[in-house]
Amino acid sequence: MNRLLGARAGWRWVHLILGGALLMPYFLLAQVVVGVVAGGVNALDSAPLSLLAYALSLPLVAATALFGPVRPMSVVAVRAMCGVPGEGLADGPARSWAARVRASAWWTLHLGTGALISGMTLAVPPMAVVLIAVPVVGRLGDVRLGYGWFATDTNPYAAPLVGIGLLAGLALCAAGAGQLLARTAPVLLGPTPADRLAAAEERAADLAVRNRLARELHDAVGHALSAVTLQAAAARRMLERDPEFVREALAAIEDTTRRTVGELDAVLGLLRDGDPDRPDAAHAPTLATDLDGLLARTRAGGTTVTAHQDPGPTGDWAALPAIASREAYRIVQEGLSNALRHGAGPVDLRIRVRTGSDPGVGSDTGSDTDTDTAYRRLEVTMTNPPAAPDDDREPRTGGGRGLRGAAERAALLGGSIEAGPYGDGWRLRAVLPLTGDDR
């Protein structure tokens, strides 16, 4: 009974009636054409001509549905009225002719079926009311009840049963048609392979943005917290013995936090859709703009960092492709953060641009060449001993989120990273190709 008279059945009935209303312009146009062809008669006065006009209106419905925003409108209506799960329907306009044809078939089915149910909804209830009222008002004279089903000599008490049967039949037809549309909607309005591919690409792009934001937040904030923690600890230990060191440590903490707040605001700006002042990636720190500052802030915490820099023939980190310089800076920052959190100084950092025929990550050897076809790459190598057994720093057991993020950064440029035990300490080594275009 709920399937016939429940709320869902009622909404599906309304959905069908809306389809019948949408068919009316097509039907009126077709009945004018049929009337003219039939010799100027009114097609509405003839049941056969009305049926012919109905049949001719369906191709018009199908043709117009190929070029309009039929699928988005239909999907919204089906979700709201037919109780079809949203994941079974496609979002957005049709992206291919196959999807348009399927949407056209749905539009034709909806409007065609809706017109029949609408016609029945208009005709059956008055007929049923007349039949139910026969025992009360008599046999209605010599009128055969207006429908030719009962003669004046028919038992009047049978008419109400027929009227009730008509109403039940109408409810059954409406429920069946609504169920048909609900089952057909995922087939004709469901996602095509092109829709699934577009959705997968959108999810992949969204995931890439999320990963990028996670990397930026981890690298900027994580390094700052590690550096500030060690700088504050070093200042506390040297408070009485070396006030000048404490002053430098506090200045480094101030500079570190100020820079981190700026970077945090830049990253969060990426989350503000439609923000015209959203900072561009070009404003992120690079080897050219902040490598010396990064090293100074790390040293302010009491960690000894020995840096060997070789920018190549140009002698300037600014000559590197911007994206390589940005990602290399973050990789160096992550390596220093790991050294601050898990290791003990000194840290040996080597950054150099090399030109050679062997782009492998695992080899530190190989002759440099100066040919036009040589493979240019940026190599970052960082080594440091582990923390002492009585040190309260975290023991290093392997790469965490930061190293995974650094590996993702390198992979985006076609490079790679190695990180792990090396001799009696720990080594991080990254190779970033420099043969691509500047981005």
TrEMBL record:
<keyword id="KW-0472">Membrane</keyword>
<keyword id="KW-0418">Kinase</keyword>
<keyword id="KW-0808">Transferase</keyword>
<dbReference type="InterPro" id="IPR036890">
    <property type="entry name" value="HATPase_C_sf"/>
</dbReference>
<keyword id="KW-0067">ATP-binding</keyword>
<feature type="transmembrane region" description="Helical">
    <location>
        <begin position="105"/>
        <end position="137"/>
    </location>
</feature>
<protein>
    <recommendedName>
        <fullName>histidine kinase</fullName>
        <ecNumber>2.7.13.3</ecNumber>
    </recommendedName>
</protein>
<keyword id="KW-0902">Two-component regulatory system</keyword>
<keyword id="KW-0597">Phosphoprotein</keyword>
<feature type="domain" description="Signal transduction histidine kinase subgroup 3 dimerisation and phosphoacceptor">
    <location>
        <begin position="210"/>
        <end position="274"/>
    </location>
</feature>
<keyword id="KW-0547">Nucleotide-binding</keyword>
<feature type="transmembrane region" description="Helical">
    <location>
        <begin position="157"/>
        <end position="182"/>
    </location>
</feature>
<dbReference type="Pfam" id="PF07730">
    <property type="entry name" value="HisKA_3"/>
</dbReference>
<dbReference type="InterPro" id="IPR050482">
    <property type="entry name" value="Sensor_HK_TwoCompSys"/>
</dbReference>
<keyword id="KW-0812">Transmembrane</keyword>
<keyword id="KW-1133">Transmembrane helix</keyword>
<dbReference type="GO" id="GO:0016301">
    <property type="term" value="F:kinase activity"/>
</dbReference>
<dbReference type="InterPro" id="IPR011712">
    <property type="entry name" value="Sig_transdc_His_kin_sub3_dim/P"/>
</dbReference>
<feature type="region of interest" description="Disordered">
    <location>
        <begin position="381"/>
        <end position="405"/>
    </location>
</feature>
<feature type="transmembrane region" description="Helical">
    <location>
        <begin position="51"/>
        <end position="70"/>
    </location>
</feature>
<feature type="transmembrane region" description="Helical">
    <location>
        <begin position="12"/>
        <end position="39"/>
    </location>
</feature>
